[in-house]
Amino acid sequence: MARAVTPQRKLINTGLAWAIGLLIFFPILWTILTSFKTEAQAIASPPIFLGFDWTLENYGVVMERSDYGRFLMNSIIIAGGSTILGLIVAVPAAWSMAFVPSRRTKDILLWMLSTKMLPAVGVLYPIYLLFIQLGLLDSRAGLVVVMMLINLPIIVWMLYTYFREIPAEILEAARMDGATLKEEVLYILTPMAIPGIASTMLLNFILAWNEAFWTLNLTAVNAAPLTAFIASYSSPEGLFFAKLSAASTMAIAPILILGWFSQKQLVRGLTFGAVK
Amino acid sequence: MGQITLKQVTKSFGDVQVIPPLDLTIGDGEFTVFVGPSGCGKSTLLRLIAGLEDITTGHIEIDGKDATDLVPAKRGLAMVFQSYALYPHMSVRKNIAFPLKMAKMDAAEIDKRITNAASVLNLTDYLDRRPGQLSGGQRQRVAIGRAIVREPAAFLFDEPLSNLDAALRVGMRLEISELHERLKTTMIYVTHDQVEAMTMADKIVVLRAGHIEQVGSPLELYHKPRNEFVAGFIGSPKMNIFGGAEAQKYGGASAGIRPEHIDVSMSDGTWKGKVGVAEHLGSDTFIHVHDTGLADMVTVRITGDISVRHGDTIYLTPQLDQMHKFDAQGLRIE
Amino acid sequence: MATKASRSAARLMMGPAVILLLGWMLVPLIMTLWFSFRTYLPLRGGDQGWTGFDNYVRFVSSSAFWPAVQTTLVIVLGVLVITVCLGILLAILLDQPMWGQGIVRILVIAPFFVMPTVSALVWKNMFMDPVNGLFAHLWRFFGAEPVSWLSDAAMPSIIMIVSWQWLPFATLILLTAIQSLDSEQLEAAEMDGAPHLKRFFYIILPHLSRAITIVLLIQTIFLLAIFAEIFVTTGGAFGTRTLSYLIFQRVLESQNVGLGSAGGVYAIILANIVAIFLMRIVGKNLDN
After folding, report:
1. Which residue in chain C has the smallest CA separation from A94?
2. How far is C175 from chain A (nearest CA, A)?
3. By Cβ atoms counted within 10 A, which residue in A176, C159, C163, C263 is the most buried?
4. How far apart are CA C271 and CA C32, in angstroms?
5. Are strands B271-280 and C38-41 parallel, antiparallel or unpaired?
6. Chain B residues with CB inside 8 Å of A187's CB?
């Protein structure tokens, strides 16, 4: 719909869109700005927008006090581990559904998605008990498995969507060329699906990174990721705006940057290819 | 090397039988074309031979050995797909090398074969490009290249020219025919285009709804179609087929005459009609004649040019020795 | 369209995913069912035997139950309505020719990537705090009395926070859908003399219907499960206790696993009702 419009019209569009865009982005911007203020400047009345003395001391304090590195490490391990594990399980499943569909394929896909709708809180205690039994409570391994399981339906769906766009003839050509099933998946399907696999990984990483129910309820100290790190600021440290902001910025920065890079692919993945 | 025999082969998808019991032998070195309207089962038949689909009952033999349960890779056949099915993430060189790599051939031999194939197919300058950077015709050649380096027992082509524009199609048609002359390898070629079938084949297999309607050389099919369906399908423009009293005069439940076997006169002849549209090709003229009492429209092919106008009265006379007669079941009467 | 060999390979390769998800669904589900029929107080005597449907009756007859169901539905529906409506408007705006479209898109999508715990904390403290929050400053600037958002207007505040998180998602998907609209269709309608509003209702909106169903589906899945936003802001107080949060409190705060499990079964039933309804829509969308 990129039709020619008058410059005035374009100017109005631009102004309006930028105003709304900045309004939506403002809470994030404000958080980032506040993280560089002193505590006094952070709660100054009237609020100071840019004219303050930039300082990094909040970051120093936050790092020192709460061992940010460990939380970050846990977040990376849990999000990364669950993503890789999920892919290992989901790639073969998605291959089957995309290239050897049967009458039940659609039902299985919908069933998988419906498991995603089971209220986590309904099964919290059983999982809690199982984790105690298995010694997985407050362990990274346990969380990796849980994150993998809750996101598995989405990974399978996304991969299925991407795989379906690869013409079956190319895989058949590989079969004619003498490739075994393993070679077919490894040398033909996977390289062709790299963009899809990458955006699936990204989205899954983001979802796992931000997940806050299981990470808050199944961890205490050892395996606590950044969600827990931030939750510890709910009170009374929450009143120290500058430090809260610094902690928040550190928790969201990695994912914000990742997300911005992958926004285009996310649409297709998240809508299961129903919207292109 | 490369005789393929199908014995009582059937194929069903669920409850639907798409190939009823079918016997067919494709001789070593033969260029066989499967032709028929879309949905006639010709591609399915090719995929059964390739091993990409299981046959439901029956046997497939390749060079006298039972291949019914062999996976595609073990049948020694190479296939060129309709969409070319090139590996988009590999260069042309790697595409052609892929089947050889899968066969664990050594690097020197792979190199030699690629160089050979590339020079035969005029691809030498493109070996390091990706398929996405090639034209349709070049992609087609890469697909063929990937097939010939393996030196297969037979080539399978699944409507390989249908994605090319008309001019390229004629060129590629010639190239494939020349390739067959040079390699003398068995080729099975699927198409819905009877012109391709007529021009390329040693042997044509006409299929309809999974049944073989007729097997024969192009000229056999042209001159002696076994039934009405083959008569109507082979030849362009289509044969004029008519029934009723006019057909009985020639001794059949229905009768047919090809457009090129009708003589035209402006003064007298067997049938009288009105000129509809006349298509002037220069070399030929196709005249569509209405109100003859035979069929809605009778097509006539005249060599060279003729000046007729819409609405002119025209007289047609069939060449009696070229008349085809069919019985009530549509079968040919000699 | 395949051979026996590939079909059996397919079954084998689908196995792990299916078995894992089946286990993940069934094992806790059966345990929850089991607990729901027992008196089970981990800190006060542990498992005290069968109790029939007592837990179910108690959970429903508790004065907190119906308000919690209502709260859940209000939050889900409120956020859905806000994000879809604003999302459509925003998507149409972003689709217009403008300078710096890419940057605006990045600005708009950003909240989706913010951790729910972070966004809840930032909103709660830096914006909604009645003393030092930015809103309080704004209200004072206009001479008004600052509002205690999370206690006096807790539900609207939470709906606002959650909508802020999900508006980007709705916008992005609807924008993508609008961009796929064939501009010739719109031009044809314009030639036929359809004014702006008619073009919107007869062409753009129907074209978006599929994208809207997808947005509704995905958001419902995630919104039914919102937890951190409430955990961090109100802790379920001031009428913001959703069904999930109520169950969470029964299980972890009052340590009544039997009662909480009965609630869990109710939540699962509720989710399934929503799921069946939504799956139908998605299933239909998959067909074409």
Report:
1. C14
2. 10
3. C263
4. 15
5. unpaired
6. 98
Q: A68, A103, A121, A171: best mutation site toward chain C, by most C Cβ within 10 Å?
A: A121
pLDDT at A3: 56
Same domain, B247 and B104: no
Q: Can you give the pLDDT at residue A272? A: 57
CATH number of the domain within which B285 lies: 2.40.50.140
- Contact residues on chain A for C96, CB-CB shorter than 8 A: 5, 9-10, 13, 17
Name which residue leads in pLDDT, A221 or C94: C94
Which residues 36-55 of B have a C-beta within 8 angstroms of A?
A: 50, 52
**Strand B186-191 to B31-35 pairing:** parallel
CA distance A200 to chain B (A): 20
Which of B52, B82, B86 is the closest to A175 by Cβ?
B52
Residue that is written with structure tokens 């290819």 in the block: A273
Chain C closest-CA separation from residue B220 CA (Å): 35
Q: State the DSSP string of B272-318.
A: EEEEEEEEE-SSEEEEEEE-SSSSS-EEEEEES-----TT-EEEEEE
| Mutation site for C-interface testing, chosen from B13, B16, B53, B74 by largest number of C Cβ within 10 Å | B53
Sheet containing strand B57-62, edge to edge, reads B16-26, B4-13, B57-62, B65-66
Q: Which residues are within 8 A (CB) of C279 and not within 5 positions of it... i.e. 6 or more apart?
A: A110, A113, A114
Q: Is residue A2 part of a domain?
A: no
- Extract long-range pairs of C253-259: CB within 8 Å, 24+ residues apart: C255/C41, C255/C42, C255/C43, C255/C44, C256/C40, C256/C41, C257/A125, C257/C35, C257/C40, C257/C41, C257/C42, C258/C35, C258/C36, C258/C37, C258/C38, C258/C39, C258/C40, C258/C41, C258/C51, C258/C55, C259/C55, C259/C58, C259/C59
- Chain C nearest CA to A143, separation (Å): 13
- Supply the DSSP string of C124-183, one letter for each residue: IIIIT-TTTSHHHHHHHHTTPPPP-HHHHSHHHHHHHHHHHHHHHHHHHHHHHHHHTS-H
Helical H runs in A186-234? Answer: 190-192, 194-210, 213-218, 226-231
The string of pLDDT tens digits covering residues B212-270 is: 999 999 999 999 999 999 998 998 889 999 888 888 888 888 889 999 999 988 888 88
**Cβ pair B208, B36 in contact under 8 A:** yes
Q: At what angle do helices C4-36 and A105-115 cross, to 10 degrees?
A: 30
Angle between helices C205-223 and C154-179 (to 10 degrees): 140
DSSP 8-class letter at B331: B
pLDDT in tens, B144-193: 899 888 888 899 999 888 888 888 888 888 989 998 998 899 999 999 88
Residues in A touching B71 (Cβ below 8 Å): 175
* Fold of the domain built from segment(s) C65-240: MetI-like fold (1.10.3720)
Chain B residues in contact with C5 by the CB 8 A cut-off are 71
Give the CA count within 13 Å in the CB-facing half-sphere of C207. Answer: 22
Distance CA A273, CA B248 (A): 61
Query: Within this chain, do residues A162 and A25 fall inside the same structural domain, yes or no?
Result: no
* Domain enclosing residue A42, as ranges: 7-57
Q: Under DSSP, is residue A77 helix (H, G, I), strand (E, B) or coil?
A: helix
One domain, residues B227 and B213: yes
The predicted-structure confidence for B273-311, as pLDDT tens digits, reads as follows: 889 888 888 889 999 998 887 888 889 998 888 888 888
Nearest chain A Cα to C126, which residue?
Answer: A241
The interface residues of chain C toward chain B in range 2-21, judged by CB-CB distance below 8 A, are: 2-5
Chain A residue numbers touching B81 (CB-CB < 8 A): 169, 172-173
Of A170, A175, A180, the CB nearest to B87: A170
Residues with pLDDT less than 70, chain A: 1-4, 235-239, 264-276
